[in-house]
Amino acid sequence: MVRASFVSLTLSLAVVGWGCQGQEGGAPAPSASTPGSSASIDGGPVDPANPTRAAAVTLQGSGIALTPDERTAIIAGEDSDALFIVPAKTDSKREEVKMLALPGPPAQVVAMDGLVLVTIRTLPTAEAKVARDVIKGPAPAEQQKRGTPAIRFDPSVVKKSQGGLLLAFAPDAAFDGGLREVARLTLAPDAWGLAVTPDGARAVVTSAWSGEVSVVDVSGAREGKLAKVTTLSVAREPRGVAVSPDGKTAYISHLVGTSLTRIDDLDQASPRASEQALPAAISRTALGTKVNASLGYAPVIDAEGKTLFLPRHALGAEGMESWWGLPTVDTLDIPTGKPLQPARVAGSPKHALAFDGGARFMPAPEWGAIEGFGPSQEEGVVQPRAAVYRKKSKTLLVASEGFDRVVELDARVPDPAMMPVRTFPIGDGYDKFGDYAKSGGAPSAIVLSRDETVAWVFCRSTFDLARIELDGAPGKQLTMLHVADDGLPFDAALGRRLYYNARSDALSGGLGCASCHPDGRDDGYVWREAHFTQEGGKTSRFLALRELSKFNGMFMGAPVEDAKFYARQTPMIAGRLRADGPYGWHGENKDVLDRLIAGFSLHRGNWQRWSAANKDVGQDVAKVDYLADYLRSGLLPPPVVERELDAVETKGKEIFESKQAKCTSCHVPETELTDRKSYELGRLRTLAGFDEEENDAFKTPSLRFIGGSAPYFHDGSAATLDDLVRNNGNRMGDTRHLQPDDQKALAAYLRTL
User: Fold this and answer.
1) Is residue 738 part of a domain?
2) Confidence at residue 30, expressed as pLDDT on a 0 to 100 scale
3) Could you tell me the maximum CA-CA distance found in the chain, to the nearest angstrom?
4) What is the pLDDT at residue 367?
5) For residue 711, is the peptide bond before it cis, meaning its omega torsion is within 30 degrees of 0?
6) In the prediction, which pLDDT does 50 show?
7) SS3 285
8) pLDDT the model gives residue 339
9) I need a surface site. Which of 63, 144, 479, 566 has the fewest CB within 10 A?
């Protein structure tokens, strides 16, 4: 653990107006530093809302922030439960990095004059903190311990939370990292996204797992006062926040689904939430089809406040190598509330070159707005994770988590993902064994300098800070600083790098595990598991849509009409992989090794004939071992408030455990709410776009965290837990005797698991 006051940081911040104000009782005494004057420092602008303070570089939260003087970068070290405070210069050294230990994992940071705001995903209970510390090992500044086995944590303990937090810090040389806490506010668990209104009066905070958005009065934060204005219930997994230039409206992106949440009257006493439609990749969608989306981490509004950009993963968009879809940047015209991408029209484009590269032409199945094929995976943005708008060039900088790079996109077109301008590779030293970067891996946060000439990027899987000179000479634009070591055991630390990596041919066809399982959760999507004959044998592949099976009328040698497409919803994995096996919807894989090797083949395009991985090859087994260690010790479960059940939930628990309902006969509490056996259940109605199941025996899923992983069943046919219980009958256990109030009580209890 690094314990040292960061005097140089504090002094530089005090010079530019990082003064400290008073605070309420119980906190340390204020420091002697004072607010800066209204004069600009080093030619920097003052805050238009308060001329006695320097203007923030940005008020939109990210995993990294720059202080108003741009001398210091503050990084949210989520996997280290710490802030890393780094001199923002080209020749920074590892020994200059300071670490401020936090009460829980930080997600996003905003740095203002005299104030740093940080979201904390969970304040663990004392019991949970002990368990988390055992899993994560020593402080990340210490050396990794090779050969240390992964800890198979108990999710029922690790999940225990006292809530999420919004923390406020002020500069003070007497405290760790040169910052001291001046205020905190408890919010719903999994506090994640953050943005502050232009007047500095209010903050908008998302709580991802809880499905809530909080509006917070931060005008008194420097004096130790944070006050909740309102909390609004929203759709699943709210993440990024973008506030309009007038401070009256906020847009919230979601990790699951296509719609945004719009918060209006942000400056009033009662802000209100509504759904804002934003369909995904409509110009690259088959006629008559709608595609879903995931990975909506980072909404961005342009400088004029007219256009909102949302990089994400379009599940089903057509194009080259599009078995899973393609990255998109969906654009919303804010004044009209309409998407800017033109809808697909018949007959445009008229044709495209066949895949064999010859003179033969094929009908145009790809997209209608722009002729030809879009960027390939190697050129485009795979697993978009963070983004910023660059006003001077009217471009977007998007961090591609899967391919370890930042891609600059033309923001003047309806779908910027189709128009890459430049690519800045960040990953380096790729391992021949796993094709993961030894440095610059999984860029997850980005911030621009005030003059937009430099981008700082934090790389989550390798704990590096990249500095990109955007206008520098090619080949001399990048400098790198290793901020900390990974605190996980050695094998699990390598598994972390594999988990985010989309480059390895052995693991999948151009996607990392984190694309479908962000945070170890799920994308909320029902995939098509296509079964067909290939080169004389039967094989299977996942497809986002049935329509993506077309390959000049064939599906890798099998007529499309002969292939079978079965519904397979993405399962949540964080906190659900403690057992050795079996795994798979039918329990078809005896253990984790068998499932991951099978997954390496399932997660690739129909033209990719096989996986390079083999469970009889030692190196491939080692890859699986690394991944499994990370899945079991690095992917912590979502936080849940530790509390007593209320009367309705208690009634639901009694029903769940009753002999009449028979729930616990399969969902055994002692074995993580599953007996891990397969049962033939009553057949569900086959949904459009899928084929009827040949195998009716489904493995009992764990009910851990079921409240946040809708929809339900292998085909996603139950939209909510209430729907599932109400329509169950005697298909699973026997709930036919339950009255409506009993059904609601059982669903309420299930949401607490």
Assistant:
1) yes
2) 32
3) 78
4) 36
5) yes
6) 83
7) coil
8) 95
9) 479
Shared-domain flag, residues 739 and 598:
no
DSSP state of 643: -
Amino acid (1-letter code) at residue 75: I
Assess whether 606 and 720 both reside in one domain.
Answer: no
Asked if 611 and 678 sit in the same domain, the reply is no
**Where among 599, 633, 667 does a domain terminate?**
633
| 667 plus 686 within the same structural domain | yes
Q: Which residues of the chain fall below pLDDT 70?
A: 1-44, 137-149, 320, 346-378, 534-536, 550-561, 606-607, 609-610, 612
DSSP state of 392: T
Alpha-carbon distance values, 711 to 694, 707, 716, 752 (Å): 22, 10, 5, 16
Range of the domain at 613: 498-633
pTM, 2 dp: 0.90
Q: Are 670 and 156 in contact (CB under 8 A)?
A: no
Cα four-point dihedral sign 499, 501, 505, 509 = positive
Residue 745: closest CA among 668, 636, 649, 664: 649
Strands (E), 500-583: 526-534, 537-543, 554-555, 558-559, 564-569
Beta strand 160-161 with 640-641 is parallel
Q: Residue 102 has what pLDDT?
A: 95
Query: How many domains does the chain fold into?
Result: 3
Angle made by CA atoms 5, 11, 12, in degrees to the nearest 5:
120
Same domain, 609 and 739: no
542 with 691, same domain?
no
Which of 247, 273, 299 is where one domain is finished? Answer: 273
